[in-house]
Amino acid sequence: MSDPSDVEARRVEGLAAAQEAVQLYQELVESNRDAHLPNLARSVNNLAVDLAEVDRRVEGLAATQEAAQLYQELAPEHPRHPRPFVTPSRRTLPTAGRRPAAADPDLGAPGTPD
Fold it and tell me: What's the sign of the alpha-carbon dihedral 9, 15, 16, 21?
């Protein structure tokens, strides 16, 4: 079994890597928005999860909301498959706030179509 302090240290390292990924994709989006915006959205979404895992839920919720906005921006570019771009962040919201999906019918249950 892993030492809890080791697990926490690895989460903090993962958070630092997620923050760096967001910064790098933000820079790349400045030079070529269309090519890198999907990766930025995914990275911000991952950052939200990592923030929640280290009990920084308010920041995690803000990152989730940012990711949702990015996914909504991407959705019109993919009219045949808009849901995959919106769904990840909608499902992250309960994780960030530690609120079960069943508590909010608009979020839908994880793993089920909305």
Answer: positive
Q: Are the C-beta atoms of 101 and 107 separated by less than 8 Å?
A: yes
Axis crossing angle, helix 4-31 with helix 33-53, rounded to the nearest 10: 160
CB-based contact 72:97 (threshold 8 Å): no
Q: Which two tokens stand for residue 102?
A: 């069943």
Residue 27 sits at φ, ψ, to 5 deg, of -65, -45
Residue 6: Cβ within 10 Å count:
9
On the question of pLDDT at 21 being above 70, the answer is: yes
Q: Residue 66 contacts by C-beta under 8 Å, 6 or more apart in sequence?
A: 44
Report pTM: 0.68
